Amino acid sequence: MGHARHAAGLLPLPVLVADLNRHLTGWATYFRYGYPRMAFRAVNRYVQCRMAQHLRRRSQRPFRPPKGVTLYAHLRQLGLVVL
C-alpha cells in the first residue's frame, strides 16, 4: 500500500479500499494473461481475510457490518475489487 503500515489503521475505510483497489487492478492487469483463475481466487480470499482481520483489530469496539449484510458483501459495497 502507498501509506505506511502503522498508519493504515488510521485511514478511513473508503480510502484504504481505494488504495488497495489500485494495487489489485494493477496485479490483475499484469497477470490476466494465461489461466489466472486459481491465483485470483487465492488473492481474493487473502485480501478478504486480511481486511476482516484489520477491521476486527482496528478499534476497541468490534466492527460489525450493517445488519443483514455479510462482511464480504459489505466490502463489495464499499467498492473492494474482486479479481
Describe this structure in words.
The protein has helices spanning 13-31, 37-57, 71-77. The chain has 83 residues and is mainly alpha-helical. The protein has one domain (5-77). The protein is globular. The two termini are 17 Å apart. The model has no long low-confidence stretch (mean pLDDT 85).
What letter string, H or E per element, gives the SSE order?
HHH
The poorly predicted ranges are: none
Largest sheet: none
Cα gyration radius (Å): 14 Å
What's the rounded overall pLDDT mean? 85
Structurally, the number of domains stands at: 1
Helix fraction, binned, reads: 55-70%
Look at the helices and sheets and give the structural class: mainly alpha
Number of helices: 3
Using DSSP, what is the number of strands?
Answer: 0
Distance between the termini: 17 Å
- The dominant shape is globular
List keywords for this structure.
83 residues, mainly alpha, 3 helices, 57% helix, globular
In short:
The protein contains three helices and no strands. With 83 residues, it is mainly alpha-helical. It has one domain.
How are the elements arranged and paired?
Elements (H helix, E strand, L loop, with lengths): L12 H19 L5 H21 L13 H7 L6
